[in-house]
Amino acid sequence: MMPKGMASEGARNGNRPGATGPEGRGGTAFPATGRAAATGGSATPAAAGGTAPAIGAQPMVICEDVHKWFGAVHVLKGVSLQVQPGEVVVIMGPSGSGKSTLIRTINALEPIQRGRIVVDGIELGPDLHRIEAVRREVGMVFQQFNLFPHLTALQNVTLGPIWVRKWPRRRAEELARELLARVGLADHAHKYPAQLSGGQQQRVAIARALAMQPRIMLFDEPTSALDPEMIKEVLDVMRELAASGMTMLVVTHEVGFAREVADRIVFMDEGMLLEEAPPDRFFREPAHERARRFLSQILHP
Ligand SMILES: Nc1ncnc2c1ncn2[C@@H]1O[C@H](COP(=O)(O)OP(=O)(O)OP(=O)(O)O)[C@@H](O)[C@H]1O
Ligand SMILES: [Mg+2]
Q1: Per the record, which residues fall in region Disordered (predicted)?
Q2: 5 lines ligand 1 (CB under 6 A)
């Protein structure tokens, strides 16, 4: 059984030169991507273990004039967005504005009908012909954790490395234990999802995504299904991940997290990207009336 979206290690390595190069993120406790050399040879601060966005490096994500229709419904209406290596971008916006759809297009979970998406130099055209190559770059964490209920936390995390990357079980378990410890679950490796709280399950889901050593992590409202007391433990893991230099695109309405961790806030409404600003400015004086209204709703519900 191989979860959807996972591809073979052989395909990964055959894909681009430098793909099996030396590990690029020395000093961080999260697994290195091993593909710093693949981003055009530019030794970015993020790839070297720093946290600053790399100015002038090849963007990790490029969306250019992206259009998406579901049948007759136009849900993305010309979205253009770039995410630099090491950057944390938070997407906010009212329900139905297209946030989930946008990040799903970046993970090739949804095809687009017009425009261009490039992930770490891999062009994802309207025909999704590079779908497997792109998915190898991207880790995704959903609102509903989507763990396999019949597998333990450890087995959920080792699945990708064993089946996709063809790692020996011992090596996969070593990495999985390291990642579970990293998300604060060293003592829960043997438990099944039903034996874990929502916050714990979401942290297993994060460890599982990281086990595939992605270049970018996408989060779609990772805390919105959680009870308040569990939100912090998940956000803390995400904070640490951001500090380790991971490129992150996060749909969330957690204002504290966005203020503290995001390099930029992107505000979407009705399938359009209305505003892009550093958190300071966005939360102090959003330029658009629609963004002001949205903020007053989430800040004073
Ligand atoms: N599979 C689908 N088929 C048809 N329409 C869809 C599908 N998925 C999303 N839509 C529509 O696309 C629009 C954007 O939805 P999307 O889920 O991206 O919004 P969102 O900003 O993530 O909203 P929320 O904050 O509620 O999660 C909505 O009008 C939604 O009804
Ligand atoms: Mg959504």
Answers
A1: 1-49
A2: no
